[in-house]
Design brief:
The complex is a heterodimer. Chain A is of the alpha+beta class. Chain A contains 19 helices and 13 strands. In chain A, α2 links the parallel β1 and β2. At the A-B interface, α1, α3, α11 and α18 of A face α1 and α12 of B.
Chain lengths: 424, 294
Amino acid sequence: MKKLLTVLLVALLLTGSLFAAGSKESGAQAGPVTLRVSWWGGDARHNATLKAMEAYTAQNPNVKLEGEYGGWDGYYQKIVTQIAGGTAPDIIQIDQPWLAELASKGDVFAVIDNTMVDLSQFDAKFLEDYCTYNGKLMGLPTGTNVNTFIVDTKLLSDFGIDPNTVWTWENMISEGRKINQKDKSAYFSGATPDIMRFWFEVYIAQLAGAVVDNNKKVAFTEAQGTEAFTYLKRWFDEGIVAPFSQTSLFYQKFQENPTWINGKMATSWDWVSSMDKDIGARKNFETRQYPVMANAVNTGVLMRPSQIFVVNNNSKNKAEAIKLLNYLFTDPVAIEKLGTERGIPSTVIGRSVLAEKGMISQMAEKATNEGIAQAGDPQSVYQMNSEVIQTMQDVIDEFGFGKLTPAQASAKMIKSLEATLASL
Amino acid sequence: MKIKKNYSYSGYLYILPWILGFLLLQLVPLVNSFWYSFTNFQLLGKAQFLGLDNYKKIFLSDAVFRQSLKVTFYYVLIAVPLKIAFALVIAIILNQNIKGINLFRTLYYIPSILGGSVAISVLWKYLFMNQGVVNNIIGRFGIGAIDWLGDPRLALGTVSLVTIWQFGSSMLLFLAGLKQIPVSLYEAAKIDGAGRMRTFWSITLPELSPIVLFNLIMQMINAFQDFTSAFIITQGGPLKSTYLYGLMLYDQGFKFFKMGYSSALSWILFAIILFFSSLTFGSSQSWVHYGDAK
């Protein structure tokens, strides 16, 4: 038995030294390098990314690339856990709001500068507004993503609404209500509770500039909040939007609502990057600009990178990782293989290569240009904080279920936000 | 002497994998989370010691905690007794000598094999949504659509049905217990002229009471910790009416990354489960009957 114990101990030691040897090997720069790249997306994005990675390894046989990819659900949780555990991939695709959230907690991402990547390819303001934390560039934007208002033109004209209407806050109600008036099971808007929160944020942005400003303060008054909620209450009262009891099940997934899929909801707030997925098999969609009130402080129309690629600061091969990023962003072969799977590219060369090949869809191009033309100020990092979002959502839910009057909702929103902001 | 010594070595060797697993995968996290519960640990970055601040905040000012606790208690009160009652009734039916009984036993056990799986929860969502299968069926009888999952008053009940429906493992235990009851007891009761109900209350139930106790405790512990179905079907909504304790733990820990706060919440849950398990154990002396005792 003692012998067995000895064997076991020796075996344990051996495995230990194996791990040690393994980590030493990957620490060396010259030899073969393995880079792990992670992203979320659908099959089309997975295939495009894998093909671009293959093209890179064909040119750089000393580099082995491993893709770690899947859907959106749980992706952020996985990445944060990996970063905390020191097992995060070398290159990570993140959503824009996470950049500040994660960078504020330590030197999580490698700093990128002009010597590593040709930064003149990017819009300098875009990099500064969305990819920079404390004056340091932390990542590169994959593409430009903007809010767009998608409308089913046929459904609108079927209900006697001019499909070319330029939307205002007022005619969204005076025209939009025609749908539910004629068909009780159909609605002008497909908004779920989370999208009602976006509409609230747009409305408040136009009234007051922002929900939460850069100084970590609630930026609207109680009267302005009441005005916004009074307007949104008319959406429920006039049948512009379906009751929350029918839509709350599709929180963050309005496109899975059968009423939407079956073409009984005419319009939606959306991101250009996800509109194809959201429209799905439906036909006759076009994009429109957002309603903007006279004297609007800010349009509330959001523009941000579709995603951001960052390099893990703990990576043993930071230089190699940045080299790969540079390739993915600026090499014509890579650009063509990646296509518009991450939105319309944010690099000059990316746009020109795809335009030359006719790979940018007209709908996406129109929506992006119109969105950029209308885009307002970026939201503060505090307004994008996940706890702040949840706080807003909880009040919107109570309001939407009729538990709060507009005045009560406004007061509660301000009070809850102040409490949450104080605890951040 | 030497042989004895060797025997003890080999014993430890056999349980070594379990001990290592327990130490590394359970004890370390357990101690860690207890420590974290007194800090503001945020997964990334350093933790600061806060003393009892997390606990104070939970008990004194966290309205979501109170709501979630309320929901969880309702859930346990609905799901556990109904599940056990169902399991018992079906077990008694399946204990009869009917042709093809084994097929039925398998069929009734299948939902439990599927477990608290994601697929079942997704299925539930499609069954009970506004335009789901259930509303479609009752619509044929002229009943209007019911917001099973959209109405804050109904959603918890609908979600509980998933749990109740998965009564198979409790049922199997009851079935095994029923087989253990000596036939002579039933024969004696029959001779004394006892009816079916009388037999059930005076023989079957007391004889099964140890299994009732076991099922009660296991199901209660599981129910307090439940997560999957509510997370997938309703995400805690509408209006946090299905916001089970497990969801709150997850949100605080993995959505807001407040691991310290989340750890404090989980130790409170631990205390609650410990209390109710002890209570059930304590009360068992008065209602659990062990046939071979005395």
